[in-house]
Amino acid sequence: MSHTHHIAFGAFWVSAALIVAAMVYVIEWLRVRRLDRESVGGWHAASFALGLLFIWVATASPLAVLDHAMLTAHMVQHLLLMTLAPPLILLGVPVKPPMHGRLQTIGRPLRSGPMQKIGRVLTYPALCWFAAAGTLVVWHIPSMFVLGLRSEMWHGIQQASFLAAGLLFWWPVIQPRPTVSKWPESSVLLYLFLATLPCDILSGFLVFCDRVVYPVFLSSSPQSFGLSALEDQQRAGALMWTCITVVYLIAAAIVAVRLLLPRRMEERSMLQFESERIAARMDPQGMEAV
Predict the structure, then answer these.
(1) What is the pTM assigned to this prediction?
(2) Which of 140, 238, 251 lies closest to 195 in space, CA to CA?
(3) I want to staple 166 with a disulfide (CB 3.0 to 4.6 A). Which of 28, 86, 197, 237 is the partner?
């Protein structure tokens, strides 16, 4: 009952914060839309709203109670906060927000030299990769995992770190604020491939291990859901393995298309230019002009 009470209390404040964030976003989205319709579209708002919904499902819905009883529920939370919600939130950011009024006042300190340097360091691809991998590994060490289950404060820190690490990880991939980078765009494909390795190792270990890695689920067991603790662990690992693979594969495919599209357009332009030159040479009037 105490845990349920804490969850309900935290869910109220999380829901309130997400509603406020959604309202502020809608107000600014409408204002930016009036000033520059090309900067934002309806899909920006839809993406941001879906990202907030995923955060709510992970932290304030009944799923937040189940994560103390089932490893599968915890894994769904982890995937929502670290893999699905962050890219949707970043995709909802306008490409070129007009800096007027409140945004200009708020954004002025963020555009200062020191803050821009801090931003470049925090969004450095190597740091983003290690932040995500480190967060994943640390919180799935059995002692740290149990700490997050038994302490409401550490549980909140765990969820916040999942979301923060997810935002950092997806920043170099989505690049909501494109900047001049020393890294070639094609390196994003390697970045995504390497990111699957720690996830594959952890999920493979959970799937193929013949013992329960987190004994805490033996007492709060998911048997009421028709699963043993070991079966719950195997399903959690399989869910992580599948979801991470599919999401990263989709992201890599989009990046690859984005890289190849300019080359295709350039090749088409060259072919069109060559065909026009050949047609001009074969045209008698064109020959006379020459």
Answers:
(1) 0.80
(2) 251
(3) 86
